[in-house]
Design brief:
Length: about 300
């Protein structure tokens, strides 16, 4: 049997989610596929952290990489999607219903723990997207959403009607761990500056949450523009390339067009997100193309981990 788990794009809350704020993540229609009919000759550290030395199903990650599964990561949370697909396939093989909320809860908790163990930490936001799908406000601490532990710190989000989002890949991968490490150095060296930067990113999450609640498209896009500036400010303070020059140039162009453009997640120059009331202009697309960026043509996955219907 085959089980799929979607990748993700983080819209709001990069860095600040690690400091206790919520984040807004969307699951996207690129998938890790686990196949229990064949055993993998090796497994990732995340999968090994979850299942130990037990046999692992094979994984097809081509949709989350450029070229073959051994090619460059697209920055869509492939390690989390691979882990969730693997655990989902093992659960389905044992006769578990992946749509059962109790099964999903157990799968999420197991995957979150293993992912954090293998990577030395992390918020679990990408694991949440791969497990549940859709658009989610997520927090490491359920209290940040005013929810009890049983809610797992998640809240489904209704994005404003008319929102256009487009995801671009720059043609190169970024190492999230290195960028986060640079931010943590700033936290140690200048806690006040770090806290101001994190507060600014957290304010953008709060604004996006309020805009979703009101169905306020203009307010949501404005939060995106503020997020672009907040990420750039953190990068300058931490001396980290969170917003590379090409992304900064496109952010300025997007703002002049009434849209927003900024790196997804920790940044570093792999994936960028356009938000607006319509598609980006021809000038924006031409400038993006001149910088080596290509649109990935992504949509939102609403279902999360599930059996694949062949």
């Amino acid at each position: 049997m085959k089980v799929v788990a979607p990748g993700k794009v983080l819209l709001f809350g990069a860095y600040s989610v690690l400091e206790g704020t919520r984040a807004l993540v969307i699951a996207v229609d690129r998938y890790a596929v686990a196949d229990t009919e064949h055993l993998a000759p090796s497994a990732s550290r995340e999968v090994r952290a979850a299942i130990g030395d037990e046999p692992a199903p094979t994984l097809d990650l081509r949709a989350l990489h450029e070229g073959t599964s051994g090619g460059q990561k697209l920055g869509l949370g492939s390690s989390a999607a691979a882990l969730v697909a693997t655990l989902g396939a093992r659960a389905a093989e044992r006769g578990r219903d992946l749509a059962d909320p109790r099964v999903r809860r157990a799968l999420f908790l197991d995957a979150k723990r293993a992912h954090a163990d293998a990577q030395g930490g992390g918020s679990g936001v990408d694991v949440a997207a791969s497990t549940y799908g859709g658009a989610l406000f997520y927090a490491m601490d359920p209290d940040a959403l005013g929810a009890d532990e049983s809610a797992l710190g998640m809240e489904s989000a209704a994005l404003p009607a008319g929102l256009a989002f487009e995801v671009f890949w720059s043609g190169r991968s970024a190492r999230t761990s290195e960028l986060v490490a640079q931010a943590m150095k700033l936290k140690e060296a200048d806690g006040a500056t770090f806290e101001r930067a994190i507060d600014a990113i957290g304010d953008c999450v709060t604004a996006s949450h309020a805009a979703c609640a009101r169905g306020d498209l203009a307010g949501f896009v404005a939060a995106g523009r503020a997020n672009a500036r907040a990420l750039a400010d953190l990068g300058r303070a931490a001396d980290a390339p969170i917003v590379p020059p090409a992304f900064a140039e496109l952010a300025g162009l997007a703002e002049r067009e009434g849209g927003a453009f900024y790196p997804s997640g920790a940044g570093g120059g792999d994936v960028g997100v356009w938000l607006g009331g319509g598609a980006p202009s021809r000038e924006f697309l031409e400038r993006a193309g001149a910088s080596g960026m290509v649109s990935l043509g992504l949509g939102i996955d609403r279902a999360g981990v599930r059996m694949r219907e062949d």
